[in-house]
Design brief:
The structure is a single chain. The chain has 309 residues and is mainly α. α8 packs across α11. The longest helix is centred in the first third of the chain and has 43 residues.
């Protein structure tokens, strides 16, 4: 009799645990959908991206879609919809984020009347595909930025164990992996630069600004971009700021993180401009100007990624 009661209690506990896991996962899906819409909305309502979905060369679009997969997998391992312990689970979360990005992009584009039944299928797919990249990144960012605080989501947060050990007194989580893994630092910078670059790279203003700039403007833009990157992460007390030990010289972080981070932002800018055809039939000097212009928001995105991820 006692054994039967214990067995029943065990089964009930298992069902309760399964229900809790399912609930947390569904909450994560909801946050992902909200993140896809919130972070993707500026691009979903940008006319240049609508047009790019129509005329962008398909091999460039395909390369962007493929490159987004490993990016999402690594990002999902960092801030997935639920705690992941294997790469297969991270891949699952990445595919869910991609699916949410596709669904939310299609929904919003249809709602705005930018996708209509009489359009060619290739145009519909192109518009949805190009919008799904930033929307999928936004879906995973939604897990990081729209997560519950202590109280409403305490149970889920407690399950993440190790992540909570690195919280400061104000509850700002700064996982050890960010400070110890140099490659992950650079990867997060690349994600931030890519996400912000996708917001502005399709616009004509980038090319217009680059034509108006003089070499002195370009040098000033580079100096200011680097200064902002360093200040965002080390000099000002933003949430998530990485504090260096007092005995560490100032130039250590500058040459180890800030300058390489700016180079990452520049490389991402080159790739995004090439993907959108902004570098085609352009002189080398003008290419460099365009890259410097786009690297300004890219550097801010790279620095912000280290704070929020």
């Amino acid at each position: 009799m006692g054994g039967a009661i214990l067995s029943g209690v065990t089964v009930a506990q298992q069902r309760g645990g399964d229900h809790g896991e399912t609930r947390r996962f569904l909450i994560g899906i909801g946050r992902g959908a909200a993140g896809a819409m919130l972070f993707g909305m500026p691009m979903l309502m940008t006319m240049e991206l609508w047009q790019l979905g129509f005329y962008i060369e398909r091999y460039r679009l395909f390369l962007l879609l493929i490159a987004n997969i490993p990016l999402l997998v690594v990002l999902a391992d960092r801030i997935g919809f639920e705690r992941t312990s294997t790469w297969s689970e991270a891949f699952r979360d990445a595919m869910i984020a991609y699916g949410l990005g596709i669904v939310m992009s299609a929904t919003v584009l249809i709602l705005l009347g930018d996708i209509k039944p009489d359009m060619p299928l290739s145009e519909m797919l192109g518009k949805i595909a190009i919008q799904s990249v930033p929307a999928s990144i936004g879906a995973l960012l939604g897990r990081s930025q729209l997560g519950g605080q202590a109280g409403g989501d305490a149970g889920a947060d407690n399950d993440r164990g190790g992540e909570q050990e690195d919280k400061g007194g104000d509850g700002d989580a700064v996982p050890n992996e960010i400070s110890t893994s140099y490659s992950r630092e650079l990867f997060l910078m690349a994600v931030g630069a890519l996400f912000l670059n996708l917001n502005v790279a399709p616009t004509e203003e980038i090319i217009l600004i680059s034509y108006k700039m003089t070499p002195w403007h370009a040098i000033a833009a580079m100096v200011v971009s680097i200064a902002i990157m360093h200040g965002f992460v080390y000099a000002v007390a933003f949430k998530g700021t990485h504090e260096m030990p007092e005995e560490t010289p100032w130039w250590h972080a500058f040459f180890r993180f800030t300058l390489p981070g700016y180079m990452v932002a520049m490389l991402i800018s080159v790739y995004v401009l090439w993907t959108f055809g902004r570098l085609d039939d352009t002189a080398v000097t003008q290419m460099l100007m365009s890259v410097i212009v786009l690297s300004f928001p890219g550097a801010i995105g790279a620095a912000a990624a280290r704070l929020i991820l």
